[in-house]
Amino acid sequence: MIIVNAADANRSFSKLLREVAKGESVTVLSHGRPVATLSPPRDSSRERQQSRTALLKRLSLEPVTDQPHTWTRDELYD
Question: Is residue 46 part of a domain?
Fold first, then answer.
């Protein structure tokens, strides 16, 4: 992990982005405290597949009806 102060991060942002593109993480400090972290994006394909599977399972449990349904907030956010 690379640790830089905010001023250095500002001056060398492009260089830091190249390091992140290589898989490195960068923590930016302001007055000695961490204020930001630059890191490579996570592979969200697995999370997306798990969410899709959970949604389809939940939908399969709903009864089929021709009546419109008005969802409540609680029903949407179990």
Answer: no
